[in-house]
From TrEMBL:
GO terms for molecular function: aromatic-amino-acid transaminase activity; histidinol-phosphate transaminase activity; pyridoxal phosphate binding. Keywords: Aminotransferase, Pyridoxal phosphate, Transferase. The gene is pat. It comes from Knoellia locipacati. Belongs to the class-II pyridoxal-phosphate-dependent aminotransferase family. This is Aromatic amino acid aminotransferase. Homodimer. Aminotransferase that catalyzes the conversion of aromatic amino acids and 2-oxoglutarate into corresponding aromatic oxo acids and L-glutamate. It catalyses: an aromatic L-alpha-amino acid + 2-oxoglutarate = an aromatic oxo-acid + L-glutamate.
Length: 381
């Protein structure tokens, strides 16, 4: 006999705003492993306030509006949105292959690099397999791993908010299928160094896939940051993950890709949701590759702003990790909520992480100036 209460006593849909049940409990059997999936906490939108311009510094977006040439292409493409997109993402894949000088068969695209990472985990992990990554790192990692029923192995960052590659090598077991290396690390900023990465890769069993997540590649200026593509070429178990969301300014359209050796890339294509990369995203990504020189001017401006902000913070006495990305990290611990609230009071929405710290995206110069004012008057201990 049907019953209204589920065996686990709990699968209810709750209202979006007040948490009260908006439908009765359901007897439908959801996967138990979903209980282990953390919710993605997205960066909050800018909060308008009387008398000040509000700025969103919470999602590492590119603050510049789309290039007119890219917008034109998207508008043109929109006229055909009654048609399915090119399922093979052929033109973009060919353009990437040429630009990166790799065979097209090594490229697998997806709806954002988060989408591609989902394909990686799906293609490699069965329930109970382990995925090793640094923590804190990108918020989506534990979600994607838990969704696959795999086990997340989080290896704490060093005291300098960098990957502890030695501890990560030690965390690998015979259940480990994938290691994620986020370089530069979101939310703390440092890149791994080439020498430490090579030494780490020498210790990783060759049947474990190492993914170098380079979402912020275009902002990297450290001399000793790795050349991930060269490392990929030299090592059959290394893949590179990239996105059009950050430097290319296409976060809203969702397109990213992996470069992996052919059997892996083919598995990723199999694990992809059909037509996952929509036609506007394909057209915009292609147009953005063509307009890269124009986009790069903006990237250089943001890198210049980062240098200006970091220098001013150091002048104020802040000790912040070296950032190779378009954000800075304040490891303020217990005072995380307090710092986020002080920024918010000044019209700046930043991203607090529990009791670890606050990440602020490098944004418009006026937003960055205001961030510096808030931090100058934030009491430190
Ligand atoms: C923003 C980000 C991504 C990219 O996400 P998309 O799905 O491509 O928008 C991937 N990895 C890291 C570390 C990021 O911060």
């Amino acid at each position: 006999m049907a019953t209204l209460s589920s065996p686990a006593g709990g699968n209810t849909v709750t209202g979006m705003t007040d948490g009260t049940p908006s439908t009765p409990p359901t007897p439908v059997r959801l996967r138990g492993s979903l209980d282990a999936v953390p919710a993605y906490v997205a960066g909050k939108p800018a909060a308008p306030q009387a008398g000040v311009t509000a700025y969103k510094m919470s999602s590492n977006e590119n603050p510049y509006p789309p290039l007119p040439s890219v917008l034109d292409v998207v508008r043109e493409q929109a006229a055909q949105m009654n048609r399915y997109p090119d399922m093979g993402v052929t033109a973009l894949t060919a353009a990437l292959a040429e630009r990166l000088d790799v065979p097209a068969a090594r490229i697998s695209t997806g709806p954002g690099s988060v989408g591609v990472l989902g394909q990686i985990i799906t293609a490699l992990c069965d329930a109970g397999d382990e995925v090793v990554f640094a923590w804190r790192s990108f918020e989506a990692y534990p979600i994607l791993v838990a969704l696959a029923g795999a086990t997340a192995v989080r290896v704490p960052l060093t005291s300098e908010a960098r990957h502890d590659l030695d501890a990560m090598a030690q965390a690998i077991t015979d259940r480990t299928k994938v290691v994620l290396v986020c370089t530069p690390n979101n939310p703390t900023g440092p890149s791994v160094r080439t020498d430490e990465l090579e030494a780490f890769l020498d210790r990783v069993p060759d049947d474990v896939l190492v993914v170098l997540d380079e979402a912020y590649l275009e902002f990297v200026t450290s001399d000793d940051a790795p050349d991930a593509l060269a490392i990929h070429r030299a090592r059959p178990n290394v893949a590179v993950l990239r996105t059009f969301s950050k430097a290319y300014g296409l976060a809203g359209l969702r397109v990213g890709y992996a470069v992996a050796h052919e059997p892996v890339a083919e598995a990723l294509r199999k694990a992809a949701i059909p037509f996952g990369v929509n036609s506007l995203a394909q057209a915009a990504a292609l147009a953005s590759l063509e307009a890269f020189d124009e986009l790069d001017v903006r990237v250089k401006e943001l890198v210049g702003e980062r240098a200006r902000v970091v220098a001013a913070l150091e002048e104020q006495g802040w000790d912040i990790p070296d950032s190779d990305a378009n954000f800075v990290w304040f490891g303020v611990g217990e005072r995380t909520a307090e710092l986020a609230a002080a920024c918010q009071a000044a019209g700046l929405t930043v991203r607090p992480y529990g009791t670890d710290g606050v990440r602020a995206t490098i944004a418009e110069p006026e937003a960055n100036d205001r961030l510096l004012e808030v931090l100058a008057s934030f009491p430190r201990d």
